[in-house]
């Protein structure tokens, strides 16, 4: 009886071995993809954050990354890690430069000195500009 049980157990194990092997490799694959995603993400986010709101592009494009202009002072950066492997990960981040014609009042950056509002993408560049309009306070007092 023991020999029969052993043979049945071994045959089940032999049939299940390929799926067990796939299950045992899956965490390694996920870890490698996550590691590559982290490297690509940090490069893209760092570059986008260092250029967001600047008057001109600063710094060089990181290794394994490409920058492209998408129009109206907006750019995207695409970073890839793990090129040539099954674990390749690609990240894209976009950022926008500051329009030099925008009101830079030094206070909150939203044009509260009566200039053009460029805090909303699409306004202030491309020929569409809105002046701030502050309605009168109905209570008769002013905020300082």
Q: Largest sheet, order of strands side by side?
A: 1-2-3
Instruction: Kindly estimate the percentage of residues that lie in beta strands according to DSSP.
Output: 15-25%
Instruction: Assign a percent range to the helix content.
Output: 25-40%
Which stretches are poorly predicted, pLDDT < 50 over at least 5 residues? 122-133
**Rg, Å, rounded:** 28 Å
Q: If you average the pLDDT, what whole number results?
A: 76
- Main sheet? 3 strands, antiparallel
Number of DSSP strand runs:
3
- Shape category: elongated
The total tally of domains equals: 2
SSE arrangement, N to C? HEEE
N/C terminus separation: 94 Å
Structural class: alpha+beta
- Compute the number of helices: 1
What does this 3D model show about the protein?
The structure is a single chain. The chain is α+β, with helices and mostly antiparallel strands and 144 residues long. It has one helix and three strands, in the order H-E-E-E. The protein has two domains: 71 residues, no CATH class; 36 residues, no CATH class. A three-stranded antiparallel β-sheet has the order 1-2-3. A hairpin with a 2-residue loop joins strand 1 and strand 2. The N and C termini lie far apart (94 Å).
């Amino acid at each position: 009886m023991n020999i029969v049980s052993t043979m049945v157990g071994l045959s089940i194990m032999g049939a299940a071995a390929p799926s067990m092997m796939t299950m045992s490799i899956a965490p390694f694959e996920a870890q490698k993809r996550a590691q590559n995603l982290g490297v690509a993400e940090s490069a893209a986010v760092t570059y986008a954050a260092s250029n967001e709101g600047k008057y001109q592009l600063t710094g060089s494009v990181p290794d394994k990354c490409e920058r492209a202009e998408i129009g109206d002072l907006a750019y995207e950066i695409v970073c890839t890690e793990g090129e040539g492997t099954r674990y390749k990960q690609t990240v894209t981040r976009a950022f926008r430069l500051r329009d030099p014609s925008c009101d830079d009042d030094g206070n909150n950056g939203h044009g509260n000195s009566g200039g053009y509002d460029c805090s909303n993408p699409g306004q202030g560049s491309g020929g569409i500009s809105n002046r701030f309009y502050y309605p009168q306070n109905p209570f008769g007092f002013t905020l300082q």
